[in-house]
Design brief:
Length: 172
């Protein structure tokens, strides 16, 4: 297993989070309680860019020979699973309990709760409703645009978590 861990000094990683393997965590990233970030299979890696929040019990895992890239200002909300190979675009929101596997999300994609996105490329600024299963490129092409209320919610979540990072870093 290749071990190469880089966590930016401004990031906050909760003591109960587990981070294993070839991982790069950017500036102002929040990693919540119980999160698991694993790139421990041969040739796997995970990059979490700046201002991302990885909330409680999120699992990010990259299969052998694959990577996961989480774009700037994205939110991975409580108990979601992001499984590589996978790319999460800038300002995406992955909803509570949702699963993203072998997929690429363009910027601004908003996935609501308990949805599955598997084996597709989702265009930028698309909304995936609650309890959806997007498993074909045809289904991905039918998705409606992300509404302003969702974009606003996503920005608020990022802002809140950035405040949490600052508060937790002061306590360290």
């Amino acid at each position: 297993m290749e071990r190469s861990l880089h966590i930016h000094r401004t990031a906050y990683v909760h003591p109960t989070a587990v981070i294993i393997g070839k991982i790069r965590i950017g500036r102002n990233v929040f990693v919540g309680p119980g999160a698991v970030i694993r790139a421990d299979e041969p040739g796997s890696s995970i990059v979490i860019k700046n201002n991302v929040n990885v909330q409680d019990r999120v699992v990010i895992h990259a299969l052998a020979g694959s990577s996961v890239i989480v774009g700037e200002s994205a939110s991975l909300s409580h108990a979601c699973i992001v499984h590589g190979p996978c790319k999460i675009g800038k300002k995406c929101f992955v909803g509570f309990g949702s699963v993203v596997f072998r997929s690429s999300l363009g910027g601004g994609v908003f996935i609501k709760s308990l949805s599955t996105v598997e084996g597709v490329k989702v265009p930028s600024d698309r909304l995936i409703p609650n309890n959806s299963a997007i498993t074909t490129q045809f289904e991905a092409g039918l998705l409606q645009p992300t509404r302003e209320e969702h974009k606003s919610f996503g920005r608020k979540v990022v802002k809140t978590n950035m405040m949490l990072v600052k508060g937790y870093k002061k306590e360290e």
